[in-house]
Write a structure and sequence with these properties.
CATH class of one domain: Mainly Beta
CATH topology of one domain: SH3 type barrels
Number of strands: 10
Shape: elongated
Distance between the termini: 16 Å
Number of helices: 0
Strand order of the largest sheet: 6-3-2-1-7-8
Radius of gyration: 17 Å
Largest sheet: 6 strands, antiparallel
CATH architecture of one domain: Roll
Strand content: 35-45%
């Protein structure tokens, strides 16, 4: 079970975008995540008339390492660490380390 998943609200804790918030759009297999509006890079693309794509400079999100983002606790509004807890019905859930509240509904 992963500590950070798709559609989680995260805050960047290190790097050029430190302090910015965003929602995770993709989780990659190599321990990296793509966050909406974070780590924007310019990509120079060539036009491809067969596919109908225009050329030019396109801004898109690059991945950041998962250790550089932290889940946002909606109660405090601050970054929080994630832990795991096994409930009485033997299901494993994510919890906030600071308060022990459940993250997953």
């Amino acid at each position: 079970m992963a500590k950070i998943r798709r559609n989680d609200e995260v805050i960047v804790i290190t790097g050029k975008d430190k302090g910015k918030r965003g929602r995770i759009t993709r989780v990659l297999e190599n321990g990296r995540v793509v966050v909406a509006g974070i780590n924007m890079v310019k990509r120079h693309t060539r036009a491809n008339p067969q596919l109908g794509t225009a050329g030019g400079i396109i801004e898109k999100e690059a991945s950041v390492h998962a250790s550089n983002v932290a889940l946002v606790n909606p109660v405090s509004g601050k970054a929080d660490r994630v832990g795991f807890k096994v409930l009485e019905d033997k299901t494993k859930v994510r919890v906030f380390r600071s308060s022990g509240e459940l993250i997953d509904g």
